[in-house]
Amino acid sequence: MTLHRRCPSFCLSLRSCLPSSHPQSILSCNAADPLLYSNHICRMYGAPVYDYILTLDREIAYIWPNPGSISGILFFTNRYLPFIDSMMEMDLEFRSDNTLQKCWVNNIIITWLIVIGVWISEVILTLRTY
Prior knowledge:
Structural class: mainly alpha
Distance between the termini: 49 Å
Largest sheet: none
Shape: globular
Radius of gyration: 18 Å
Order of helices and strands: HHHHH
Oligomer: single chain
Strand content: under 5%
């Protein structure tokens, strides 16, 4: 049962973290239909890409002229950090050669990227109120 706590909570990455001889019954997720699960994942990660495409022209017009400013740095970090942690999550989801060590390290990195992203969002919201 400690294996469940040490691996990320993603269903497929949990399965890829387990040795092939380990019983799969400790997993408490409902990924019985892998096609449905992968379609859900693709839609979930497709939304930020769609948003990026819709707002790229405004980003180019307003942010790219001054990319080194504080607001530009905060914007780029807030805008592109989710793509990095999403790619790391998908790597854990869909690769079958993940080890426990890789799952553990990537889970820590992804968690910190999310924390940093939330913190930057809070800084942006705080700056907007002044």
